Amino acid sequence: MPLLQVEDLRVSFRTADGIVQAVRGVSYDVEAGQTLGIVGESGSGKSVSTQTIMGLTRGAQVSGRAVFEGKDLLTASAGDMQRIRGAKIGMIFQDPLTSLHPYYKVGWQIIEMIQQHESVSKEDARKRAVELLRLVGIPHPDRRVDDYPHQFSGGMRQRAMIAMAMALNPALLIADEPTTALDVTVQAQVLRVIQRMQEMFGTAVILITHDLGVIADVADEVLVMYGGEVMERADRRTLFFNSHHPYTEGLLQSLPAYGGARERLRPIPGQPPSLLSPPPGCPFAPRCPYVMDRCRTEDPPLAAAGEEPGHISACWLPHRGSERAELRRKLLEAEPAGTAPSAGGA
Amino acid sequence: MSTPDNDVLLRVDNLVKYFPVKSSGYFQKREYVHAVDGVSLSVRRGETFGIVGETGSGKSTLGRSIARLYDITAGSITFDGEEISRHSQRRMRPLRRQIQMIFQDPMGSLNPRRRVGSIIGDPFAIHGLATGAERKRRVQDLMERVGLNPEHFNPIPAECTGGQRQRSGVARALAFQPKLIICDEPVSALDVSIQAQVINLLADLQAEFGLTYIFIAHDLSVVRHVSNNVAVMYLGQLTEIAPADDLFTVARHPYTGALLSAVPLPDPDQSERREQIILVGDVPSPIAPPSGCRFHPRCPKAAPVCVSTVPVLEPKLGDRPVHVAACHLPMAQGENLADFHPTIAAAQRVIEGGGLLSGDEAEVSTVAAEALATAPDAAQSEGRRQ
């Protein structure tokens, strides 16, 4: 049984402009010890879906199930959630300066967190805080434990956040864009720290990012999200070398090739859909070069794709590689890619 | 270098920009952030000159100094044959039509309360050219150029998508057919698919109008894609300048090597094959930068000469004159930086050159020494991807 099982998660928010359907029927599971990468652009629903699981989207209308260690997190009581958050499921966010309290010492915040969940003496909790800071590579942890967050550099703050998230040895760590605010050399340091902690404690990780490079580096399994839905799920190699969904293909093609010839980039034309009134069919249909009539009216379900087990994709294109290639060719001939609406408008 | 070259649009010589730091007492010595500290470069007409560096490297300050948004501390800037570094704001004004900037955050660089069309029309208003219907016609012309629907004259920036906002910023910069556009992180706030649209747009405009770009960014794959030449910046100084392909295949400066190895590659094969160099410690303070080569406290190869002597930008190991690096111990082709153990080298320096190290460096290096003493295995795995 998977560690976390999310089924048909739907999240919507009431706003002044109407109801925003941020997550529209997302299902996935995470096995113990595994790293699941969730990749998507702004507004794809990748952050909202995990925040909802953690009970952090107040005022949202939520339906579906998120079963963690046999308990549905979406219906759990506030008290239960408080015991799970931090202790069983750790979290790291993009900006460590806003997730650490500026008025309290870094060490104090870790100690408080430990004491909140376990009955240990202050001295023991402090010892553990120092040890954790040492594990994530903070220099002089015995002294730095008494520093305030502003005395840490960006990379150190994010490492302190990791220390705090790992303090109670959670079974699952949710990292939401953990390295987006960091420089590449610091990003490399932080990703290594997450990996090392994962190896030491056997933690499962959900890594949410927009950076396909980070995905290629650390994810075992990848979930691609767009317009509040899951477009494709595959293991890392299948996703990068044998993807099924045209959106995944479009994402990979719009990146500048590193090391290859400097060809003109191939962006995905158009804009992501509005989630106020999402199109009835496939959310990617308006930008898809292979769009068929059916795509505009019927939303394709996630179904097995290709030969790899566990590879699923929400697309009406045939799942057999050879048939797919042929149909794609025909669709492209019938309707050249340039006919999609250009980036202006709206 | 000293002969006037008609191909060169911009020459920067020994540019220095310090920012004063608020001092705590009346008699305290005034301190300065050494944001840009002696940068020289030249940009040819029609090329894209990339500048890469991490947070605090001074790359944005350099760009803004070149556009004369700052008064520079020392050095000279020659634009199109004219020395502009001491020009008053009044004398700069006609030149501003020729040097334009595009910023990272279009939300911050476009007035949130005004209509996109009128923002794009600002340059005409400021320079007193084209009014009324004529201005509107020219604005709509510009909007069409950058792929905005000319009908969408009226939304305010908040009603536009990120891509549309950045296109508006580009349109405004293009108003007077400038010679040089300084792009400061023009695509970093955009999603990948939109980022590619804007990069293609910049390339099209360059081809159409013969524009010269200075392209400042931290994303190395984007910089490589757009640039003819690339300069790498670290702590206010240039460590290496080279044609893009040379830099990305044969980096001479260990910092360039470490930076390139840290870029996440969107390809699991390449990502597994490559050895990553994880730098130890953080970037030292720009208020009291390290002596000698500023990278020496974190450099896996550093030797005593790197602590005592400032390296000069010059061709290394038989490189072409266009590829220069400021390093005493440049990397040979195929040399693997991961073969050096940064923590060991750093620890050694604590023993050998203790007195020469500033506070921050000493901290980084003592950490290394400690790491080495307590857990040699951990120290090695820090420097080498396993």
Topology (SSEs and partners):
The complex is a heterodimer of chains A (346) and B (386).
Chain A: E1 4-15, E2 18-30, E3 35-39, H1 46-53, E4 61-68, E5 71-72, H2 78-84, E6 89-92, H3 96-99, H4 106-117, H5 122-135, H6 141-144, H7 154-166, E7 172-176, H8 184-201, E8 204-209, H9 212-218, E9 221-226, E10 229-235, H10 236-241, H11 246-253, H12 293-297, E11 303-304, E12 312-313, H13 321-334
Parallel strand pairs in A: 3-8, 3-9, 6-7, 7-8
Antiparallel strand pairs in A: 1-2, 1-4, 4-5, 9-10, 10-12, 11-12
Helix pairs in contact in A: 4-5, 5-7, 7-8
Chain B: E1 8-21, E2 31-44, E3 48-52, H1 59-66, E4 74-79, E5 82-83, H2 89-96, E6 99-102, H3 106-109, H4 116-120, H5 122-126, H6 132-145, H7 162-174, E7 180-184, H8 192-209, E8 212-217, H9 220-226, E9 229-234, E10 237-243, H10 244-249, H11 254-262, H12 268-273, H13 304-308, E11 313-314, E12 324-326, H14 342-353, H15 359-374, H16 376-383
Parallel strand pairs in B: 3-8, 3-9, 6-7, 7-8
Antiparallel strand pairs in B: 1-2, 1-4, 4-5, 9-10, 10-12, 11-12
